[in-house]
């Protein structure tokens, strides 16, 4: 069971706090933030998602810059509590439309009503947006989406003007359009995290894709829908060598190493025609998670050149090549480079005519950050 739940801002401000059992001290939020902010244990500069301090277990996840934290004195499964925190964040986002410090402060009455229904005396009751609609009566206060930051990974690549307005997926699932009408809409996003290791000469050493098919439904009555995937989709390599990439070029086949589906997905016809059948509940949820290690062409290629310029000095030249068509623009790119722990000073120089680029030396964790507002073809930096 959970003793306390609270949400902290990046500054450590207590935005939401609910004490369910009264067996943990009231100042636990401040104790937690100080410990996380100045974490120096195990030779790490970032606190793990789960740790124990003075007999209290702290669990936390970071969602859009906010810290969702749970405390307990009991020995609970870390996976269970971390998943619960993610689901609470998702439920709050479903109801508010936008998950931010401002939306939480404006809708604190609705948020506390949600928390009272999600948990009772520290025991989880439900985290289903659909079920909670029968018990929640407060209406959300809409937050001005024009002041919000970009959509994150889903808005990384933009092709021409083919982009849905940001308000399309920042609406509350319980709010109605002006006039009392509800627009029948459903949105599907494919979000992929690409992990690639390059050699110093720019060749790919390892590559992996972790992907999610994310769905957000505003449909009334939960009608059954069908989602068709690639006909040539296959799961597992069927005994072939992991180095056999013959299907990655020309044939158009997609090979998933493994995948899992949401509990509402029916796989009756998946083996026949690669079609998923589901009755989407209100709110946002992952339809499918998958992982690919099949060889692919990454969107970026990074070349680095490191030369010693003296006994205590080194010069680094980084070049970031865009490997996608010129009709596509990549927005808000950040290149990070770890430096030796004894680094004390860094000078940087961007290529002539560089616009929308910034460089910074993060002395606390000895990292270089190269931020690019927009990438079309090639960018270079010199340290």
From TrEMBL:
Pfam families: Adap_comp_sub (PF00928), Clat_adaptor_s (PF01217)
GO cellular component terms given for this protein: clathrin adaptor complex; endomembrane system
Entry's localization field: Endomembrane system
GO biological process entries: intracellular protein transport; vesicle-mediated transport
Keywords of this entry: Membrane, Protein transport, Transport
Domain MHD as annotated: residue spans: 183-383
Membrane-crossing residue ranges in chain numbering: none
Similarity comment: family membership: Belongs to the adaptor complexes medium subunit family.
Name of the protein in question: AP-4 complex subunit mu
